[in-house]
From TrEMBL, chain A:
The gene is LOC114032907. Exerts its effect at some terminal stage of cytochrome c oxidase synthesis, probably by being involved in the insertion of the copper B into subunit I. Transmembrane segments: none annotated. Coiled coil: none annotated. It comes from the Eukaryota. Keywords: Membrane, Transmembrane, Transmembrane helix. Interacts with CNNM4/ACDP4. Interacts with RANBP2. It is found in: Mitochondrion inner membrane. It is a single-pass membrane protein. It comes from Vombatus ursinus. It holds the Pfam family CtaG_Cox11. One of its GO terms (molecular function) is copper ion binding. This is Cytochrome c oxidase assembly protein COX11, mitochondrial.
From TrEMBL, chain B:
It comes from the Eukaryota. Residues 1-12 have a biased composition (Polar residues). Residues 1-20 are annotated as: Disordered. This is Cytochrome c oxidase assembly protein COX19. It is found in: Cytoplasm. The keyword Ribosomal protein does not apply. Belongs to the COX19 family. The gene is LOC114052335.
Amino acid sequence: MIGASYAAVPLYRLYCQTTGLGGSPVAGHASDQIETMVPVKDRIIKVTFNADVHASLHWNFRPQQTEIYVVPGETALAFYKAKNPTDKPVIGISTYNVVPFEAGQYFNKIQCFCFEEQRLNPQEEVDMPVFFFIDPEFAEDPKMAKVDVITLSYTFFEAKEGHKLPVPGYN
Amino acid sequence: MSTAMNFGTKSFQPRPPEKGSFPLDHFGECKAFKEKFMKCLRDNNFENTLCRNESKEYLECRMERQLMAQESLEKLGFKDLMDEKSEAKKNL
């Protein structure tokens, strides 16, 4: 999976290994948390989904559900779909955003499709899953008391040699 | 998006996913499980809690086909579904 077709390996690839662990100390900790966390069943949160593509990327990219209702402490699955309607393979790479800003720290993606190059062949269409949970501590944060809707937005860019994902901290 | 570092202003810091990126399911091997899950959501007002069996089955499909690193279902948050299953077996 390390074989890069680009001479310059973007820094962000190092963060997102398909094996998952990549030496990150956070990974093991998160699995333990997931196994023992208790859902806060009376705190229902609506998660809504946005999808964007950068102007130079000619993909059709959209969420497969406009919203999903979750509770903190319970893992959840959602899908996006992407299609390459052109006659050439296209490689895209995505980043994401969570609104409201303060809720972002509680939004944990276990696995998704972001930060790593995704190649779609001509006319190819694929499902893109996001597997996530909202940290149970969300329910204990007084600043989050009035937050009932969290919006997850993904934006796809075309991955080009030497291209740097315009995200602070990854340049 | 600005490429300048805005020190001191609050900006969203995206974090990479815990287990990295899902390989693309180029051949749609788990599409049927995805459809089952999506149908469950549509039938249940998009409540994730009511469709966890379907989401578990989708992830199991991926793991069986090398489209996801193997992980115990408990560590994916499905411990209660596993407990239910073993309870049901005991009562048979």
